[in-house]
Amino acid sequence: MSEDREFILYVGEDCKKYLSEEFDDFVKVELKDKGALETVIKALKIRFPNAPLFVAIPKQDKRRLEMKFPTVEFIPDFECFRN
């Protein structure tokens, strides 16, 4: 996999079909629960250190994770999914 690919991580089963079209060319990483989110972020940053990483996250978790992972772009999940 190329370093120039962008990644979008999101939590929730079968949410891929609801992702906004702006993420069509991204590598999609779907997690079943948010308990694994931090581990997956760390693993992707180790394996693809220069790849842009975006995470759809509930607003209440955004600030804590931004402090922990300053090079990751956290987007409120309601902005990532279409109705």
What is the number of helical segments per DSSP (H or I, 4+ residues)? 3
Helix fraction, binned, reads 25-40%
Q: How big a fraction of the residues is strand? A: 15-25%
Broad structural category: alpha/beta
Largest beta sheet, briefly? 4 strands, parallel
Number of strands: 4
| Uncertain spans | none
Order of helices and strands: EEHEHEH
How do the strands line up in the largest sheet? Answer: 2-1-3-4
Radius of gyration: 12 Å
Could you say which overall geometry the principal axes of the C-alpha atoms support?
Answer: globular
What number is the mean pLDDT?
A: 86
Distance between the termini: 31 Å
Characterise this structure.
The protein is α/β, with parallel strands linked by helices and 83 residues long. It contains three helices and four strands. The protein has a four-stranded parallel beta sheet with strand order 2-1-3-4. The radius of gyration is 12 Å and the shape is globular. The model has no long low-confidence stretch (mean pLDDT 86).
